[in-house]
Design brief:
mainly alpha; Reverse transcriptase zinc-binding domain-containing protein
Length: 139
C-alpha cells in the first residue's frame, strides 16, 4: 500500500491530523483515488493525456474484439460507449476500477447481454492485462 496521507492518518492518528489535505493542491484528502486525479501529481508522475489515450484504446480494443465474435448493432455501440467506466475526465469509480485491474460490474453486465459470462471475462482479462502493461510502461 502506498503511504498516502489517508493511510498514514489511519496508522498514526496522533501524528497526522484528519483535517490535513493533499500537500500539493490543498483541495482534497490524499487517498488512492486522489493520486489519479490531483492536477499537480498528474502533470508530473502520470500524464493525463497518456492515461486518457490508454483508456480510449482499451475501449476501442473491446469493440474490436467483441465485434470479431458477434455482430454489434449501432445501438449497442452507443450504449457501450455511454457506460460510466469510460468517464476519465474526472475518473468515475468504474474507470478507476479498470485502472486498478478490476472489472466494473456495469461493463461486465452489459457485455454479458451479448456473450456468455465466461467468454466475456476471457476477452476482458486479456484486454485488461494489455491495458495494465501499457499503464506500467507509459506512466
Amino acid at each position: 500500500m502506498l503511504p498516502t496521507l489517508t493511510s498514514l492518518q489511519k496508522r498514526k492518528p496522533s501524528l497526522y491530523p484528519s483535517d490535513w489535505l493533499c500537500c500539493l493542491c490543498h483541495s482534497a484528502p490524499e487517498d488512492m483515488n486522489h493520486l489519479w486525479t490531483c492536477p499537480y501529481i498528474i502533470s508530473h508522475a502520470s500524464p493525463k493525456s497518456i492515461y486518457h489515450k490508454l483508456i480510449l484504446s482499451f475501449h476501442d480494443a473491446c469493440i474490436t474484439n467483441f465485434s470479431e465474435l458477434v455482430s454489434l448493432s449501432d445501438t449497442f455501440l452507443l450504449e457501450f460507449s455511454a457506460l460510466d467506466c469510460w468517464d476519465f475526465i474526472t475518473p468515475s469509480p468504474s474507470c478507476l476500477w479498470l485502472t486498478r485491474g478490476l472489472f466494473p460490474t456495469d461493463l461486465v453486465q452489459y457485455l454479458c447481454k451479448l456473450l456468455p459470462k465466461k467468454k466475456t471475462l476471457e476477452v476482458l482479462t486479456s484486454l485488461l492485462s494489455n491495458l495494465h502493461e501499457q499503464l506500467y510502461w507509459n506512466i
